[in-house]
Amino acid sequence: PSLKKVVGDKFHIGVAINTAQSSGRDAKSVQLIKKHFNSVVAENCMKSAVIHPEENRYNFSQADEFVKFGEDNDMFIIGHCLMWHSQLPRWFCTDSEGKNVSPEVLKQRMKDHIYTVVGRYKGRVKGWDVVNEAIIEDGSYRKTKFYEILGEEFIPLAFQYAHEADPDAELYYNDYGMNVEGRRNTVVKIVKDMKEKGLRVDAIGMQGHMGMDYPDMKEFEESILAFASTGAKVMITEWDMSALPTAKRSANISDTVAYRKMLNPYPEALPDNVSEEWNARMTDFLNLFMKHSDVITRVTAWGVIDGDSWKNDFPVRGRRDYPLLFDRNYQPKPFVKELIEKK
Ligand code: XIL
After folding, report:
1. pLDDT at 268 over 70
2. Whose C-alpha lies nearest to ligand 1, atom 7?
3. How many domains does the chain have?
4. Which reaction is catalysed here (predicted)?
């Protein structure tokens, strides 16, 4: 019994993998990846800071290994991500004095970057997160360097370049907090506008970083439907669910003991199987994804086991979190176990 046997006829079931996994060093996680998933995305190694650290230097070694891992294991390979304000090398948008480059220069750099990266894996990487996290909650554009220099145009431009570099690749717009109405409305508009202009947009990626009290499931469902109304498919691209209370990075608490307690209010670690509430909420969301499997074409977990999750260090460092489908002992969480044993 495996996840892909149970849900694989509904949508691709994917996972984000790190370099220890794509290189094969982390054999235990590799076993789980091969058994349960049929799609992979690189957790970090295709981000611009890693793959293109200097203007005239690319670093393809980890990305090459990742793509080979995907091919060797017959996975649907996703590239993450082409244009993102984070994990972006400083040189990309500025000149040697640190001043913003001109729109012409930035366009040329975007084009070179996208042509080179997408071109290298043409026909092998099947879908790209072309633009990541460009819209904020109130529906306005995030004030990134891309936006400062090029305005709204940077999004359609990125999609145009990606399509030119590999006409067969699927292209996605990806963002978090996609249940929120302001962001939802703007993303719908952007995708509709691009499609009307004749640009290729295959899917809208809802990252799906969740917690016990967000997102609201009804809002999330409304977004699935709104995104599908553009004619694009919907993907849950970075699914995880923190079991810890939300901690604000900006929390300004002078009492260290109180602060630590706020970061992790549990005196002991939680049990590896987390709580019944957590498992029930994961089941509810998975059921929601299956209910909409006519429009949802992929569900990807953002990591294999809890011990490797980014949530242990976000939004504050050094917590012990339990957000993924497999625990620190490589065991499926109860809701996963129940699901795969039922079949
Ligand atoms: C995270 C990775 O998981 C971490 O290892 C890294 O340190 C920071 O980025 N949204 C995204 C992902 O689109 O690329 C982020 O991944 C998580 C949030």
Report:
1. no
2. 310
3. 1
4. Endohydrolysis of (1->4)-beta-D-xylosidic linkages in xylans
